[in-house]
Amino acid sequence: MKVFLLLCAALIALGGATLRYTQWDTYLWHHWNINRQVTPADALDLSRYRVDIEAVALEGVDDDLSALAFNDERNTLFGLVNGQPDLLEISLDGKLLRRVRIEGVRDMEGMAHIGGDRYVIAEERHQRLRIIELPDGVQTLDVSNSPRLTIAIDDSDNLSFEGLSWNASEQKLLLVRERDPLRVLVVEGFVNGDGDLLQVDITEKARLQEEDLFVSDLSAVEVDNLSGNLLLLSDESQMVVEYAPGGKAISLLGLRRGFHGLQRSVPQAEGMALDNERRLYIVSEPNLFYRFSPVEP
User: Fold this and answer.
1) Subcellular localization, per the record (predicted)?
2) pTM of the full structure
3) Structural domain harbouring 177
4) Which of 2, 94, 225, 238 has its CA 20 to 30 A from that of 10?
5) Domain check: are 22 and 139 in the same one?
């Protein structure tokens, strides 16, 4: 595989300005370039990850599976179905445990677990965040009066907020805009681990601007609590990129057939989460569940 990557990268380089790059050319080039570097000891190092649960269809979910968050207190995952809209609790091996109908919200595209029964969800079209409480035993939850924050920094359309993650150590939300332009935003003060509303501060992620991302869209964001590194998922570019806190790309996970043990390409990756064992979970429309685990060399 490494020889194959080197040959592809060499062909891309020889093509020079006359070659029209595809998304996969971009992946191969950056994969080769990043693999020449020394990976930090505390990094995830996505190159060593292999799929161990592939394309499991969630029972009772037909379409519009979007977003994923890990709840370390319950040791389960939570996902969203934006067409219904429904909130799902999912086991770590891809079994549907609970389904809750969400009322008073439209076009849910991002989700983060804050602590206890508290979550934040992102509404794409309205560019809005909501804090919700999700107790056990409910089948329907009305969130129309829940605390909310509108972040109207770009034209409102269907290319807005796509992914959301909670950085517990720094008490910050990370939010990504899909494209036009790509954005990685940091939201401080909207909520903390205790659920208190504070003075809100919204900034664009320093040292991680659009020209540094080398992907065509952003579908999800996740923070690795051990290293502080950032994971960004791109559906169109079919890859996950790991970035050091300073903004340098340090590893890649390709989501095409033949890479990392995949028998088939991931069709439309929309959500991503890490668990306490640093296993990586991805959900893909229409209703597919994947798990990637680190394999020691």
Assistant:
1) Cell membrane
2) 0.87
3) 45-294
4) 238
5) no
